[in-house]
Amino acid sequence: MSVISEENVRGENLFKDISADDEDWQPTEIESMCMNCHLNGMTRLLMTKIPFFKEIIVSSFSCDNCSWSNTEIQSAGRIQDQGVCYTLKVRTKRDLNREVVKAESATTRIPELDFEIPPFTQKGALSTIEGLLDRAAAGLEQEQPIRRETDPEVAEKIDGFIRKLRELKEVEDEFTLVIEDPSGNSFVENPTAPQKDEALTVSHFKRTAQHDMQLGLRADDDLEDEEPAGNGIDAMRDEVLAFNTNCPECNAPASTNMKLIQIPHFKEVIIMATNCDSCGHRTNEVKSGGATEQMGTKITLHVTDISDMTRDVLKSETCNIAIPELEFELGMGAVGGKFTTLEGLLTDIKDLVVSKNPFICGDSGVTDQVEKLNAFGEKLDKVMAGEMDVHVVLDDPTGNSYMQNLYAPDPDPEITTEKYTRTFEQNEDLGLNDMKTEGYREDK
Predict the structure, then answer these.
(1) Nearest residue to 423 (alpha-carbon basis) of 414, 432, 415, 411
(2) Dihedral pair phi/psi, residue 429, rounded to 5°
(3) Average pLDDT of the segment spanning 299-318
(4) How many Cα atoms sit within 13 Å of 430 on the Cβ side?
(5) 317, 202 Cβ separation under 8 angstroms
(6) In a 3-state reduction of DSSP, which class is residue 11?
């Protein structure tokens, strides 16, 4: 048995990139019982990292006695701060080829068939929409021979449902596929990237206490919410708060600092920054320190010079980004809240859409799509170099985003700010329609 010391865990990343040159890095072999013949076989474990995705544990079992074998992939990455829900309208057979990363904690639903695959009933998989349908049909067929002998009526109903499930692959009628993952580690491909996918809706949500218990983040008997210490707003303005967390890249212990600051000519915001001493990764996130504004804000910047790249930008989690000249639109929650410069924001967009897109790397990338995304990345480079005249639009329905005015307190000739009334759908996404702040005690 090998013993891993704390020094090795903290000082060296256990999850290495796949490489044929590292001869010392070999799978761990463990003798274990075969579930088929109940004799001893061999399990091999390999901890590795998929480029631009996350850490995984690859396990392979083989038995020399009965020749039975099995392979599994388990996620070893961190659980995201929020859950994610993908809603896909499958309209053509081409949609069946979309690649899907389905975590073990994800729930899969097809509302038209009233069909649901509960979480933790299937192992995590990298597949396609068609592969998910085939896997669901195969799972239902597994016990059918026994059902036909013990309960023919139930078996006949399941056979009919399996036929309906397989008919979905013909896409004669549009159907909806919903993947809801409280861990935030599932993903559905957008084949039209960097353009907006009209058939795919992505939303993020806050996990409930039950979700935290399922993911092992909270003890089963811990149902009480911890209340933050009330030190007062004035004390928070003069103090940098720190709390322990894990690095989002290497998962090593790290520290996150939090500070409440006032942005001139705007409002108070909360900035959180994480710095990992193990791998050097740095990240920052911005949260609004105030209430949701009465009206939404749309800020349009006309980029005319490279000096515009140095403008400070506060992008909240609810802000949509658009560059009309590039036919580009990025929805809320995709990049997260940030306090950076315009150049930093465009760099993050390029990393998200091009550099760190897992579906354009290696053999899985479609040539046309890879060329289109690379061309989009080159256009972003021209914008950041001041060689392309574009408009950058920040559309925030909560009114909590900000673009620096270089001429303050006078108006900036290159910035146009519009106030607008939110639609019912925007208020629904923000949870404002069901929020009652006055007279709520009267309902009790």
Answers:
(1) 432
(2) -65, -35
(3) 90
(4) 25
(5) no
(6) helix
